[in-house]
Design goal:
By secondary structure, the protein is mostly beta strands. Helix content is 0%, strand content 32%. Strands 7-6-5-8 form a four-stranded mixed β-sheet, with no helix packed on it. The protein has a two-stranded antiparallel ribbon with strand order 1-4. It has a two-stranded antiparallel sheet with strand order 2-3.
């Protein structure tokens, strides 16, 4: 793991983070403002989480070298879906799943699906 103060993620990406406070106080985990272009999305900065740290200071523990292992679910796929995103020249967006406009049918808890995301050129 690499200590960082800032992390840039592309849309749809995910990261695991461990947060270590510098001392008592209130800390905000924030998004930065971001724009994907004139016909794209424009996001204002927002607070994702607020951490309240209180109590007597303790000796910080070392961050782990590796996170806990994650179960490989690739062999447990119970369904497949394709979602297609499109955008017209004026910026109108739409999406469909298996030919139907979203939202698609709900996904059952404890199921594992494989999604394919297409964006026509």
């Amino acid at each position: 793991m690499i200590p960082k103060r800032q992390l840039l993620l592309e849309p749809g990406a995910r990261e695991e983070v461990l947060v270590q406070a510098a001392g008592p106080g209130t800390y905000a985990l924030r998004t930065a403002p971001f724009s994907t272009g004139p016909q794209g999305n424009h996001y204002l900065g927002a607070v994702l989480a607020t951490l309240h740290v209180a109590g007597a200071a303790v000796t910080p523990i070392a961050l782990p070298e590796n996170l806990l292992p994650v179960t490989d679910l690739r062999g447990a796929v119970t369904g497949r879906r394709t979602i297609v995103f499109s955008e017209t020249e004026d910026g109108t967006r739409s999406s469909s799943t298996a030919g139907r406009l979203t939202p698609a049918a709900p996904i059952r808890a404890s199921s594992s699906g494989r999604w394919r995301v297409d964006r026509p050129e």
